[in-house]
Amino acid sequence: MGLTDIDDKIINKANKDEKPFTEIAKKYEVEFLQDMNKLNILSPSYITRVSDHIPQIIQYIQTIQQKDLTYPTDDGSVYFDVIKYGRYGYFRPYVKDEDYKGFKKHSSDFALWKGAKLDEPFWESPWGKGRPGWHIECSAMASGIFGSNFDVHSGGVDLKFPHHENEIAQSQAHYNCHQWVNYWIHTGYLHLKGDENKMSKSLKNVVGISDLLENYTADQFRMMCLLTAYRHYLEYSEDVMTKTSTNLNQILNCLNLCDIYVKGQLHCKSIDEVQLQKRINDCRVSFKKHLANDFDTTKAFDDMFELVKFLNSSLSKIEQEDDHIRCPATVAAASLFIKSTLTKLGFDLANQMSSSKGGDMLLLNKAMDNLVDLRLTVRKFCLDPPAQIFTEPLENKKLEKKRRKEVFSPLLKKCDTAREDLKSVNISIKDLGNDSSWLIEKK
Length: 443
Hints:
This protein has helices at residues 8-17, 21-38, 54-66, 82-85, 134-146, 160-175, 209-215, 218-226, 238-262, 273-292, 297-314, 328-344, 359-383, 397-423, and strands spanning 2-3, 48-49, 70-72, 78-80, 110-115, 130-132, 150-156, 181-187, 190-192, 234-236, 427-431, 436-440. It is of the alpha/beta class. The chain folds into three domains: 2-203, HUPs (Rossmann fold, 3-Layer(aba) Sandwich); 213-351, Isoleucyl-tRNA Synthetase, Domain 1 (Orthogonal Bundle), CATH 1.10.730; 359-440, no CATH class. The strands form five sheets. A four-stranded antiparallel β-sheet has the order 3-4-5-6. It has a two-stranded parallel ribbon with strand order 1-2. Strands 7-8 form a two-stranded parallel ribbon. The longest helix has 27 residues, at 397-423. The two termini are 32 Å apart.
């Protein structure tokens, strides 16, 4: 991953705060990496910084210069000549501006090296004091890792032109090749509801990662991103996050049902094992097919939600045990497929039931287990009380049933109230006939 630690914004901030640009850049870098860690995003294998690669960037420019594709300007800068290059316009057809009158030869020419200005950091070079242009930094650093060709280059849709266009031109000129990158991935803007502008600190329309995680989990935000095609603009709002949270909870509840079914704690109707196995295989194939089609995560998750819906329906509870045919192995296979797929996509499923393995969470688990057991005992007693507690049994069974209901109704209501109270703090209790389970639902 390339980090630009020297640009106009950083320089302006450094001059305003009267601090070295390296200090400003390092502060932003640390904040960025901390935020990525909070979102459970894998750390990059390599981090390249512009200030660490000045010699390589200068050498990269010199190679292009040797091909007679550059020219100097009076301010000590070096520009790339798009007309001499002859292949400019990969993402957007090039149309020469015949009316252009400026210090450059052509309006689309771009700086490879910028001559030094007052109050700006600089480095010595064959062209005098200065600093790298924005586009050349990325080409030189990426080429230093991957060489003359690599598979995937990504960035926001706003970088497609002119930044990535210029990267292609200078890199293919440098290597005298026709394909520097095999695949380009350009993501759409993230924007607030009612604001079509992308989130930007300069526009002050951003939601910080720490602020986001005060209300939602990293997995909920990840799900929001995956439920929208990466090329599309993505609206961030409370409504969108609420819907996303509901979708994720459907999956988590399904996995919880699968778990307690496999353990023998859930008694449900007979499951069509052949149909379930077919749905698992179909979903596995279609999920990969959709990802292979330009990472179409939207359709991939549509298919997964169909599998989840089928599982939730199949695992519907019944009140009494019966001689139903069980298929724990197939249900476990479905659960494993869903879990492994979500884990590969970066979801932290191990952290869904508990946010910590420390003492506080262990105490919560113990307390919840005791509470659920107590509630289950009371509930079962109320639903099926021993006959001897009534000193005067009635011959009329309907009247006796009515009397029992009247006697124990307050306790059953209290059990329901306890369940609803816990639900308000995102703890869900599920009554499963002769057993009960609990789950922490993410908001």
